[in-house]
Amino acid sequence: MNDLSDKRTAAVHFEPDDQVDRLKSEILRKLTYSLGKAPAAAQAHDWLTAGILATRDHAIDVWQASTKESYATGRKRVYYLSLEFLIGRSLADTLNNLGLTEPMTRAMRELGVDLPEIETIEPDAALGNGGLGRLAACYMEAMASTGVPALGYGIRYDHGLFKQGIENGRQIERPEDWLSFRNPWEFERREASYRIGFGGSVAASGPDQVVWTPEETVFAVAYDTPVVGWRGRDSTTLRLWRARAMHPLSLDAFNKGDLVGAVAERNRAEAISKVLYPNDSTPAGQELRLRQEFFFTSASLQDLVHRHHRQFGSLDNLAEKAAIQLNDTHPSLAVAELMRLLLDEHKFNWEKAWEITNATISYTNHTLLPEALETWPVALVERLLPRHMQIIFGINARFLDAVRRRSPDADLASLSLIDEHHGRRVRMANLAFVGSHTVNGVSALHSNLMKETVFAQLHRAFPERITNVTNGITPRRWLLNANPGLTRLLQEVCGEAVADDIGLVRQFGAHADDRAVQERLAAIRRDNKLRLAKVIQQDCGVVVDPEVLFDVQIKRVHEYKRQLLNILETIALYNAIRSEPYRDWAPRVKVFAGKAASNYTTAKSIINLINDVAAVVNNDITTRDRLKVVFLPNYNVSLAELIIPAADLSEQISTAGMEASGTGNMKFALNGAITIGTLDGANIEIGERVGADNIVIFGLTADEVEIAKRNPRPSAEVIRATPHLEGVLDAVAGGAYSPGERDRYAQLVEGLRLNDWFLVLRDFESYHQAQRRVDALWADRARWWQMSVANTAHCAWFSADRAIGEYAERIWHVPAGQAARA
Ligand code: GL5
């Protein structure tokens, strides 16, 4: 072991009592000297901040050692550009990764503080909308855990994803305020600030020389947070940019009494990092969004180019030392910005600049939904980023020329970076594709569909470029921390080392029939359900029995995710229970949670319907013991950590071909929930691993969906052929669940009858039958626990460490740290 690794693991090697004493004095010092509070006067939030600051010191030791080592060895570094990082809380995870959970709990206890309780007042860092942002957070932790040197670049939004309230069954949005009491994890880096230009003009200043003179300039200031990996071996850095005005106040305007004008520039500049766009899988068309995209992309590239130049004195070897990963198309402008830096600031010629750009950048696609593929009007890009528009035209001309020469009959219109059909728009996905050496999808099905659909022409032009890396989740947060009961059982059965090598859970499979293991599992699940039941009672006012089946759908609310299918089937079940109350129904609670984009009317109407159905069902005494429906407000990472370990059934019911991968599906399966799902995204790979007997599959396949869309069956015919459906739709449309406003759902149902685009009606019967199979499985509890064991035992492959290993080896060409040091 060298000095560096000694230093890294120092925190873990103290004798337990010494360590507790040391932590106590560290906490007290922070309380006294950083917060100015005496222990007797300290409130819960003071203890939390003192605990975070004490923990952060340990993280810094690891962080500095990691940084020093990666500089000393000149290893290749990954730069992960993402407009979203959906982090959640950090204290429990950081303590766990540092091996400090036990001693910190004891230290706090001896100071009269309940650590798990104060952990719950840490605000969630909700700098993301859904899976894409959460994936970025998992990958930052997994890179730290597997020793891949990395910097994550994003925006430090003042306001993360809105807070969702439910009032009279409807979603209301309130601003989120995670920074209102400062963020104790971060460090402001004044020295790392860059000028970001917008607008202005471009002029030739010599042969091949161009000068861009922006009309407006804002500052991007860096805020760094360490992300510590498992056992505190390594740390990555999350570097988030905040926008600041060059001139915070116009004294001239102020002195003339123009108070608004005096801060106009400041407001315009700072708006860039003010708020996260609450859109999931749909582009926001606002100019501000494009400004955000360029702002963080340009700051990140200037930063990494500057660092590289300082370290190596030249940019010739950029691709050897830096891998830039674009998390979706939001940072696609990186292609043009890197070209600009190389051409205009570092005086490379076009060919060399292009070679470096292409060899450095790679791009992950996260959705094929046509409405989600980002495009920007050429006129807007030209006005805001004139030099970049020139460069994009330059890339396009050379690219189309090369294709034309190679294959004269290629479909240039669909290959072009410019869409000429809809008023000339820049296709950000094409820009990212052409500018990258590798493009990946996020599940096997999704990557294949990329080749066949949206990227079919580009795939023909670059047959080697598309590859697949199925998503992964960090087992530290989603198993070890979220489900300590199950973790303990796994450690007993598979050995303590499962925490280090999640692959060892495989051995759990051999115990699927062991009654004692099954009983332990049942007890663990029951405890988790009890914890969730308390929150349900608090937040929804509904009492649920932990003995019943917890049937859970938690995710963004979107038509393709088909919460509507779930709630319509719930109504059918409710009707069936009422008409045959003495049948042997599997008692269930249907748990929903999720946010809808604020401008997505249909999704909001679906939330309203779920709540209205809940109000009726939960007050009906005939179904009282057998069916409950709850919608937990304000879904976020912390709530997911509570819900997932308590789930018996995981609803992954998207229209096949529409969910790129899903990652919630992996979290549930690893925690032993049974999936009811379509053959979509990573559900397919979960099924392949756990085995067809241990998953409940229904519905049309992606191929069948394609055919069904080309030749849609009239809804009336589908409804006629589907038992129960007509009655359910009539009841909803007629106001049975909205007696105060009878036509509240008339449009929602009419929409389905007119165009069942997401095949809710088509898949209804298949889903209903699948749910009856679930009833039967639940009745045979030994079988259920067997399935649960199989799910946990075979889902280690969905670890983010495996996914990062694939990126490192096949895309970034960086050796993982442990291997490199061994
Ligand atoms: C998403 C996809 O919709 C998910 O299927 C996928 O698991 C996730 C991460 O790859 O990316 N795309 C997207 O825009 N959001 C997603 O969750 O928000």
Automatic annotation (TrEMBL):
Obligatory cofactor(s): pyridoxal 5'-phosphate
EC number: 2.4.1.1
SUPFAM superfamilies in the cross-refs: UDP-Glycosyltransferase/glycogen phosphorylase
InterPro entries: Glycg_phsphrylas, Glyco_trans_35, Pyridoxal_P_attach_site
Keywords, sorted A to Z: Carbohydrate metabolism, Glycosyltransferase, Pyridoxal phosphate, Transferase
Pfam (any one): Phosphorylase
Signal sequence coordinates: none
EC category: transferase
Record keyword Transit peptide present: no
GO MF terms held by the record: 1,4-alpha-oligoglucan phosphorylase activity
Reactions catalysed according to its record: [(1->4)-alpha-D-glucosyl](n) + phosphate = [(1->4)-alpha-D-glucosyl](n-1) + alpha-D-glucose 1-phosphate
NCBIfam families, per database record: P_ylase
Known function: Allosteric enzyme that catalyzes the rate-limiting step in glycogen catabolism, the phosphorolytic cleavage of glycogen to produce glucose-1-phosphate, and plays a central role in maintaining cellular and organismal glucose homeostasis.
Family: Belongs to the glycogen phosphorylase family.
Protein name per the record: Alpha-1,4 glucan phosphorylase
Source taxonomy: Bacteria, Pseudomonadati, Pseudomonadota, Alphaproteobacteria, Hyphomicrobiales
